[in-house]
Design goal:
The complex is a heterodimer of chains A (about 140) and B (about 700). With about 140 residues, chain A is an alpha+beta fold. Chain A has five helices and five strands. Chain A folds into two domains: about 1-75, Roll (Ubiquitin-like (UB roll)); about 75-140, DNA polymerase, domain 1, CATH 1.10.150.120. Chain A has helices at about 20-25, 80-90, 95-105, 115-120, 130-140, and strands at about 1-5, 10, 45-50, 50-55, 70. With about 700 residues, chain B is α+β, with helices and mostly antiparallel strands. In chain B, helix 4 packs across helix 5 (about 225-240). The chains are: A alpha+beta (about 140), B alpha+beta (about 700). Chains A and B meet through helix 2, helix 3 and helix 4 of A and helix 1, helix 16 and strand 27 of B.
Chain lengths: ~140, ~700
C-alpha cells in the first residue's frame, strides 16, 4: 500500500484490515503513536490524515491508500507546539502528548480558547486537567 | 543560577513531545512471546475443572503449580495468590497464564473453567471479614456531647473510582543470568522486586526491575504491577523467552485496583457560637477481595476524617472489610478524599443547622499552630488552614456570589482540607529509604528509586540537588530507575517524593559539597577517584508515633487547601456543570511552580470527575462499564478553568521548605462541588452527583429546586 508518511512516499505491505495504529507501530517502527483504549475514546493514537485528526485505532490500514499520514515523528521536534508543551507543563506523563499535539496542530492558526476546548475534546489527559495544555497551545499560536 | 523556584525545562520533556520516550509497549526483545491471563468469571467459589479447548503446541501454559517460590503477592498480608489454586474470591481473579508468539492465536485460545459457586458478599456493611479496624480517641466524646447546644448527624457515601492512567498496565519479563529482568510501567520498583523474589524464590541479585517511561499511575501502579510482573516472570521462566503482557483497556479496568468506596457517619456536637465540642465519626471502607494496601488506606482516611478542625473530644472508629469484588487499592489521596468529602459536606450542614455563615463556621474551628489533631499531634508554625480559607474567599468574592446566585441556577460552594505528607505514623522510619548521589565530571548523577510518572520527579530532584551543590541544573543527571543501580528510596506514593526523598538527596549533596571543598568535580575525581554518597532517611528529632494507641505525630508536615467551585445546573436535565474552580493550596515551597501547579490542576480535574462523572457500575461483583465509552473521565469540555493559587509557608525539615503536593488537590473538589449543589438547594450525600441523584435528592428546607418550565 502506497501512501505518504511524514512527507515521504512509502510502500508498506500490510494486511488492509489491520489497524493503522498497529501498522504504524509494528511495521513502520513509529512507536510515538500510543494506544490508550483501542476504542476511539482517548485519542492517544491520534494521527493526521490529510491534515484531519483521526483515531488510528479505529482506521483500517486500507483507508490510507494515497493519503498523507502525519505522526508525531513527522513534526521532527521543531514544531512550536512541541517546545510550548515542554515549557508550559503541557506534557506530564507524556502518553497522551503525541496525540494531543497532533490534534492541536490541526486546530489552525490562533484558535480561541473555545476552539481549543472543542478541538481537543476527543483527547483525554488524566494528568494535567488540560489547563497547561491550553497555555501551551495558546503560547505556540502566538509565535 | 539558582534553579529551585524556577520553571526549568523538564528533564524528559523533549522525549515526551517528540514521541521518542520509550514506554513498555514500545519495547520488543528477540524471541519475545505475548502473555495472556485467564481469569475467573464468578465472584466467589471453588474451581472444579479447567479444560483447554485449543491445540496447545507452541503455547506456554502456567498455573499455580509453576510458582517456584511462594504463591502470594508479598505486600502487607500474605493472602492474595498470584494464581488462584482452588478458591476464587472475585471476578477477574487470575487463574491460568498463556503465552504465544502470535497475539491473535493467543487471544483465540479457548479455556473453559468450571466452578462450584459460593455465597458472594457485595455489601460491606454485612461483610463477615474485617481486614483492619482502627480507633482514634482524644479527650472524652461524651463530655463533648454534654457541652453541645446542637447535635448534627449525617451519613455520606462515595463510590469506586478508576485511576484511568492513559497507558494501561504493562510489563516485559526477560530471563537473564539465572534470574529475571522485569521492565514495566510502575511506580514502586522495589515493591515489585520484593514480590518477585518471594514468588520466584530468587535471591536479591537475580531479580532486576527497570522502570520504563510510565504513562500515569495515580496510585494505580503502586501495588498491582507486582501481580502482572509475577505473571510475566512465570511465563518467561517457563518458556525461557522474554514475555510481554500489556492489558487492553477493558482488562485493565475490570481487573486492577480502584479507590475504596466508603460510608462515613458523623455525629457532631456544636456550641451555638459554632465551636465543635464533640466529633464522633465512623468510617467503613470496602476493601474488595484481598487486603492489598487497605489497612494503610484506612489509616490515612481515619486520621484525616475530622478535616482540618480543632476539637478536644473526638472518637473515630474505622473499619475496612472484605467483599467479593476485585481488590481496591491505592489511588491519589488514599482514603483522605473519602473521609474529607464527608467532613466537608457535614460542616456545610452544621452551618445550616446553626444558621451560620459556612465560612465563619470553618474559620472558628480551623486548626491553628499549636492546636492538636485527633491523634494528639501538636501542629507546627507551618499550619495554614485559616490562611488558605481567607485567600480563597477573598479571591473568589465568595460572599457576594453566594448572595447573588440565590434563586438562580448557579451555586457556589467551598471546602477546606489538609493532607499529610509522607508515610503515616512510623512508616518513614520503618521504610528507612535511601538515596544516592554520584559525582560526575561536570556535576552529579541522582540515584533514586523514585519514579517519574508524570509529576516531574527527575526535574524536581535535579533542582534540589543543583542548588544544594551550587551547580547549574543542566549539570545534574538522573539515572534510569533500575534496581541493579539505584538504592531503595521507598515507593513513589504518599506525597513523599519531594519532601522525604528530596530531603535525603539534599543531604547527599551537602556531603559532596563538603568533600569537594574548593575543588571542581573533575579535579576531585582525578585526585580521589569515583565518589558516591548514599544517605538514609533521618526524621526530624522529636517525632513520636504509637501504632498501638494511634497517638502521636501522624505526619511530618501537612499541606493545606481550600477549593471554591461555581456550578451551573441545567434546569431540564439536572446536569451540573462546573464553571470555575479556584484551588488555593499551601505546599511549603514550590520547587518548580509549573510542575506544582500541574499537580494541583490535574488532581483538581480528577476530583471534578470523582464528584460528578466517574461511576463504576458493579454488577454481580464486576465492573459493568469497563470501557472508556461509559466510564466517563473529564474531557476538555467537562473541565472548567482552574485558578491555582500556591501559598508557601515553609516546613523546616523539607528540602528548601517543601511539603508534599501530589495528593492533596483531589481532597477538595468533591465536597466543594456538592456544597455548591447544596447552595442550589439539593441535599446530596453521595457522589458522583449524577443528574439522577440530583433529581432524586430531597430539597433543603427554605430552598426550592426550581422545576423546569
Amino acid at each position: 500500500m502506497r501512501f505518504s508518511l511524514n512527507g515521504k512516499t512509502v510502500d508498506v505491505p500490510a494486511h488492509p484490515l489491520r489497524r493503522l495504529l498497529d501498522v504504524l507501530r509494528e511495521d513502520c517502527g513509529l512507536t510515538g503513536t500510543k494506544e490508550g483504549c483501542g476504542e476511539g475514546e482517548c485519542g492517544a493514537c491520534t494521527v493526521l490524515l490529510d491534515g484531519e485528526p483521526i483515531n488510528s485505532c479505529l482506521v483500517p490500514f486500507a483507508q490510507v491508500r494515497g493519503v498523507k499520514v502525519l505522526t508525531i515523528e513527522g513534526l521532527k521536534g521543531t514544531h512550536p507546539l512541541q517546545k510550548a508543551f515542554v515549557l508550559e507543563g503541557g506534557a506530564q506523563c507524556g502518553i497522551c502528548t503525541p496525540g494531543m499535539i497532533l490534534a492541536a496542530a490541526a486546530l489552525g492558526s490562533r484558535p480561541s480558547r473555545k476552539q481549543i476546548r472543542t478541538g481537543l475534546a476527543g483527547n483525554l489527559c488524566r494528568c494535567t486537567g488540560y489547563t497547561a495544555i491550553y497555555r501551551a497551545v495558546e503560547k505556540a499560536a502566538r509565535r | 543560577m539558582k534553579s529551585v523556584g524556577r520553571n526549568v525545562p523538564r528533564k524528559e520533556g523533549i522525549a515526551k513531545v517528540t514521541g521518542t520516550a520509550k514506554y513498555v509497549d514500545d519495547l520488543s526483545f528477540p524471541g519475545m512471546l505475548h502473555g495472556r491471563t485467564v481469569r475467573s468469571t464468578i465472584p466467589c467459589g471453588d474451581i472444579t475443572s479447567i479444560r483447554l479447548g485449543f491445540p496447545t503446541s507452541g503455547f506456554t501454559i502456567a498455573d499455580f503449580h509453576d510458582v517456584p517460590g511462594k504463591n502470594f503477592i508479598a505486600l502487607i498480608e500474605e493472602d492474595q495468590p498470584c494464581l488462584a489454586e482452588r478458591e476464587v474470591r472475585h471476578v477477574a481473579e487470575p487463574i491460568l497464564l498463556l503465552a504465544h508468539p502470535d497475539k491473535e492465536k493467543l487471544l483465540q485460545a479457548d479455556v473453559e473453567i468450571k466452578y462450584r459457586p459460593g455465597a458472594a458478599v457485595f455489601d460491606p456493611a454485612v461483610s463477615p471479614r474485617t481486614f483492619k479496624e482502627i480507633t482514634v480517641e482524644k479527650g472524652d466524646v461524651n463530655r463533648g456531647f454534654a457541652a453541645a447546644d446542637e447535635v448534627v448527624e449525617g451519613e455520606y457515601r462515595t463510590g469506586h473510582q478508576e485511576q484511568l492512567y492513559i497507558e494501561p498496565m504493562g510489563v516485559i519479563a526477560v530471563p537473564e543470568n539465572g534470574g529475571v529482568t522485569l521492565y514495566g510501567s510502575l511506580q514502586c520498583p522495589y515493591y515489585v522486586h520484593r514480590a518477585l523474589k518471594v514468588l520466584l524464590g530468587l535471591p536479591d541479585q537475580k531479580v532486576r526491575v527497570i522502570q520504563t517511561e510510565t504513562g500515569g499511575g495515580f496510585g494505580g501502579k503502586e501495588e498491582y504491577p507486582s501481580i502482572i510482573a509475577g505473571h510475566a516472570c512465570l511465563l518467561a521462566l517457563k518458556s525461557g523467552r522474554p514475555v510481554k503482557i500489556v492489558y487492553d483497556r477493558a482488562e485493565d479496568m475490570l481487573a486492577t485496583t480502584k479507590r475504596h468506596p466508603s460510608v462515613v457517619r458523623h455525629r457532631t456536637g456544636v456550641a451555638r457560637d459554632g465551636r465543635l465540642t464533640a466529633m464522633e465519626i465512623d468510617v467503613l471502607l470496602d476493601g474488595g477481595a484481598y487486603v492489598t494496601l487497605s489497612p494503610v488506606v484506612l489509616s490515612r482516611g481515619v486520621i484525616h476524617a475530622t478535616g482540618p478542625y480543632r476539637c478536644e473530644d473526638i472518637r473515630i472508629h474505622g473499619r475496612v472489610v472484605m467483599t467479593n469484588t476485585p481488590p481496591n487499592g491505592a489511588f491519589r489521596g488514599f482514603g483522605a478524599p473519602q473521609t474529607q468529602f464527608a467532613a466537608e459536606v457535614h460542616m456545610e450542614r452544621i452551618a445550616e443547622a446553626l444558621g451560620m455563615d459556612p465560612v465563619r463556621l470553618r474559620d472558628v474551628n480551623a486548626v491553628r499552630a499549636g492546636d492538636t489533631t485527633a491523634t494528639g499531634q501538636v501542629l507546627g508554625p507551618d499550619t495554614s488552614a485559616r490562611k488558605v480559607l481567607a485567600e480563597a474567599v477573598r479571591r473568589t468574592d465568595y460572599h457576594r456570589k453566594r448572595r447573588a446566585f440565590r434563586g438562580t441556577d448557579r451555586g457556589i460552594g467551598l471546602a477546606l482540607f489538609f493532607h499529610g505528607s509522607g508515610f503515616t505514623g512510623g512508616g518513614e522510619v520503618k521504610l528507612a529509604s535511601k538515596a544516592a548521589l554520584e559525582l560526575t565530571e561536570t556535576g552529579a548523577r541522582i540515584l533514586v528509586a523514585s519514579t517519574e510518572i508524570g509529576q516531574g520527579t527527575r526535574t524536581m530532584h535535579a533542582q534540589i540537588v543543583a542548588d544544594a551543590l551550587g551547580i547549574p541544573y543542566q549539570n545534574v543527571e538522573v539515572s534510569e530507575v533500575d534496581t541493579g543501580r539505584v538504592p531503595d528510596s521507598g515507593p513513589t506514593v504518599a506525597s513523599r517524593t519531594c519532601m522525604v526523598v528530596g530531603k535525603i538527596l539534599e543531604r547527599c549533596a551537602g556531603e559532596i559539597r563538603e568533600k569537594l571543598g574548593k575543588m571542581s568535580p573533575r579535579e576531585y575525581l582525578r585526585k580521589f577517584g569515583p565518589l558516591i554518597v548514599t544517605k538514609e532517611y533521618a526524621g526530624p528529632d522529636g517525632l513520636y508515633w504509637d501504632d498501638e494507641t494511634y497517638r502521636g505525630d501522624a505526619y511530618g508536615a501537612y499541606g493545606w487547601g481550600c477549593d471554591v467551585v461555581e456550578v451551573e445546573r441545567d434546569p431540564d436535565t439536572y446536569q451540573i456543570r462546573p464553571l470555575r474552580v479556584t484551588a488555593v493550596q499551601e505546599i511549603g515551597k514550590a520547587i518548580h511552580p509549573i510542575l506544582a501547579a500541574g499537580q494541583i490542576e490535574g488532581g483538581t480535574a480528577q476530583g471534578i470527575g470523582y464528584a460528578l462523572l466517574e461511576e463504576v457500575s458493579m454488577r454481580d461483583g464486576a465492573m459493568a462499564n469497563a470501557q472508556m465509552t461509559n466510564y466517563v473521565a473529564p474531557t476538555t469540555l467537562d473541565t472548567p478553568s482552574i485558578d491555582v493559587v500556591i501559598l508557601e509557608n515553609p516546613y523546616q525539615h523539607g528540602p528548601f521548605g517543601a511539603k508534599g503536593v501530589g495528593e492533596m488537590p483531589i481532597d477538595g473538589p468533591a465536597p466543594a462541588i456538592v456544597n455548591a449543589i447544596r447552595h442550589l438547594g439539593a441535599d446530596i450525600r453521595a457522589i458522583p452527583a449524577t443528574p439522577e441523584r440530583i433529581q432524586e435528592s430531597r430539597s433543603i428546607s427554605n430552598f426550592e429546586i426550581r422545576i423546569s418550565k
